[in-house]
Amino acid sequence: MPTATDIPQMSPLPDGRFCVHGTAVVLGQRAVLLLGPTGAGKSGLAAQLIAHGGRLISDDLVVLEPTARGTTCLRPEGAPEAMELRGFGIAATPVVGSAPLALAVLLGASGPRLPEGETWGPEGGKVPFVRHPTTADLAAKILIWMRAE
């Protein structure tokens, strides 16, 4: 299972929601949450997913709302409709306000080749959790996985 030392922690908000350092992109009607330390490649991977038809919820900070149906990713109030493109600067990006969370991906050390199904998220709204290094084929893997689920 993910531990407090290897993924960003969800910080509780007064209204029962949580915030997390990450980037969320909608693929189809569901969100993938990209987690990892600063510089891990969250925004770069999000840019690849957006180039393939994804839509940005939020870059760098995401609000998670546990619901009866799972967890919803939301844009923080006042978040810019933009994302950081390392080496290019800040770019305006069309955004969506929210989507149900379907997958959390931790960018960093690789997990097992055929993982045994870790989950992550608020109680009652946990989703599949994948550990993967930032590689050139990761966006394609996420797109294929999301279509298959």
Automatic annotation (TrEMBL):
Keyword Lipid biosynthesis listed: no
Annotated ranges, domain HPr kinase/phosphorylase C-terminal: 19-90
Assigned keywords, A-Z: Kinase, Transferase
Ranges that cross the membrane: none
Listed InterPro entries: Hpr_kin/Pase_C, P-loop_NTPase
An annotated GO BP: regulation of carbohydrate metabolic process
GO molecular function, one term: phosphorelay sensor kinase activity
Name of the protein in question: Hpr(Ser) kinase/phosphatase
